Amino acid sequence: MEKVFEYTRGMLDVKLTYCPGCTHGIAHRLIMETLDERGLLGDAIGVAPIGCSITSHRYLNVDMCESAHGRAPAIASGIKRVHPNAAVFTYQGDGDLASIGTAEIVHAAHRGEKFCTFFINNAIYGMTGGQMAPTTLVGQKTTTTREGRSEAACGKPLRISEMLATISGAVYVERVSLDSPANVRKAKKAVHKAFEVQEKKLGFAFVEMLSTCPTNWGLSPVASLEWLRSNMMQYYPLGVFRNPEEVM
Amino acid sequence: MKEKVLMKGNEAFGETAIRCGCRFYFGYPITPQNELTEYMSANLKKAGGEFIQAESELAAVNMAYGAACSGGRVLISSSSPGIALMQEGLSFMCSVQVPLVVINVSRGGPGVGSIQPGQADYYQATRGGGNGDYHLIVYAPSSIQEASDTIVKAYDVAEKYRNPVMVLADGMLGQMMEPVSLPEMKEALAEEDIPKVKPWALVGHKDQRPHNVIKSLYLQTEQLEETINGYWGKYETAKKELPEYEAYNLDGAEVVMVAYGSTSRIVLEAIDLLAESGIKAGLIRPITLWPFPYNAFDKIGSSTKAVVSVELSKGQMLDDILIGSNGRWPAAVVSRTGGVLIYPQEVADRVKELLEGGKLNGKSV
């Protein structure tokens, strides 16, 4: 019989320990399938952040290191200097990237670093137990905003993709969502594009993935996907913010 | 004898690193080490290397971690407040056991402090400015020549021990010019040879081996303890293999001064001044600050009545002197701090006062 599908070699045969309904599993698989399809698994080097996905190296079949909180883009910049032809990527959540790591992500984009960043935005700190992130929506309840995030006290959530799109070195910036099969397919295309930008050494490639955190949102996996669609996608519109002509 | 060139300390440090095969440098401007960053920006690329002016010292040390964990030979440098910011990365690199050479051209502190030479980063360097159980290996050269020779050694030690090595210079060494005989140019490790020399490095698995993972997080506490115990063995070896010091004029010395780095050169002049007043003084100059050469104190003879730490801080090395002298002699500190230099005459006068004044640490001299 003809084999029409097989599990990617990019994922190791290890049980994921993320919470039920968490979209990390989807994001992991998309990145690994893409590297596999592009023949880059053996040449890839990934940087895991602080956050739930610090353990991503247990599952991803590529050389990887852990990072201190927020520093993954600086580490990837160093790796890329030693291995300019490797497929280097950082995988970072919103607490890591949008708060403590803003300097590193902004300046990686500013230098036009030739690696990819996959930004998992679920509007909350997951690993530490559900505190407010810079991406937490106004009114959203977290363990540090028990009455809901107040705009007066905490400002409005940061739109990282829009912010990075103002930096000329960030040549490819797209926001996708992992909420539905159709959007997951679009996300996969974005991951492909990001690695293509890197292979062509065009500049910094950034893909934001709207994701869920059922545990800390206090919702079921299905209700979480609905909450993502009806709340996050309103504030964080999907789309391409920057795209180089070479990879249209 | 190789030809000597007249060079500013900061530039000689950079040139030496390039000649050691260092091809990756990440820096951020801070006085008094700027000439080093500037020198690398101008010369590293010519040698086939890569330079990044980082957005902060925090980013610089993490770039260094990235380059080192993927097999590069790396240099970073800064001065005291910048080194404080780098502690996160230094602790991390010790925990994951990757080699690095870091130069601290130290200045007066705490806080922003001053931009003149200081030695008040002694605790930070030798006690661990970051979190957790770890040590940096720390060298304290006293001349530009010795600094150059030390950097050569530092790369070998860092890679042998897979641990960051700090060269603790100070603003004086960084800023002054001296004749220096530089090492021969060494070829850098080619990218394709990294897996042979550093099989642990991240280079991509090429579908030929299981993936390499460099990790610092251990959710199972027993595993973390086991990891720490594993690399702690290196530190025990380092304590046996690495301590270095220089002893001067100890025979018959009435007082022994202990000083490191450029301060030791001030003390040498103070020894001559004391001799003119009929006081025989000696010097122990620790070359490694961690591991500290405690064995040096066994060379002190029965003529010695007191041990005096001379340092450009309130008396941080004094702690190690107390450990090394182990109650055998009263000990005191003669210091200036905040970036103020001490003159030989002041050292001589204050040592004389201490000897005449009678009591040190509650003990009679």
Please describe what this structure looks like.
- The complex is a heterodimer of chains A (248) and B (365).
- Chain A is of the alpha/beta class and 248 residues long.
- Chain A is 36% helix and 17% strand.
- Chain A contains nine helices and seven strands.
- Chain A has helices spanning 24-37, 72-82, 94-100, 102-111, 151-154, 160-164, 181-199, 214-217, 221-235; strands at residues 44-48, 63-66, 87-93, 116-121, 170-177, 204-210, 239-242.
- In chain A, strands 2-1-3-4-6-5-7 form a seven-stranded mixed beta sheet, sandwiched between helices.
- In chain A, helix 3 (94-100) crosses helix 4.
- The relative contact order of chain A is 0.15.
- Chain B is 39% helix and 20% strand.
- Chain B is globular and about 75 Å long.
- The model of chain B has no long low-confidence stretch (mean pLDDT 96).
- The chains are: A alpha/beta (248), B alpha/beta (365).
- Chains A and B meet through strand 1, strand 2, helix 2 and helix 4 of A and helix 3, helix 5 and strand 9 of B.
What's the SSE blueprint?
The complex is a heterodimer of chains A (248) and B (365).
Chain A lengths: L23 H14 L6 E5 L14 E4 L5 H11 L4 E7 H7 L1 H10 L4 E6 L29 H4 L5 H5 L5 E8 L3 H19 L4 E7 L3 H4 L3 H15 L3 E4 L6
Parallel strand pairs in A: 1-2, 1-3, 3-4, 4-6, 5-6
Antiparallel strand pairs in A: 5-7
Helix pairs in contact in A: 1-7, 2-4, 3-4
Chain B lengths: L4 E4 H11 L4 E4 L6 H10 L6 E4 L3 H13 L4 E5 L1 H6 L1 H10 L3 E7 L15 H6 L9 E3 L4 H18 L2 E7 H5 L1 E4 L13 H4 L15 E2 L6 H21 L3 E4 L6 E4 L3 H15 L4 E6 L1 E3 L15 E6 L6 H8 L5 E5 L8 H14 L1 E2 L2 E2 L1
Parallel strand pairs in B: 2-3, 2-4, 4-5, 5-7, 6-7, 11-12, 11-14, 14-15
Antiparallel strand pairs in B: 1-8, 6-13, 10-12, 16-17
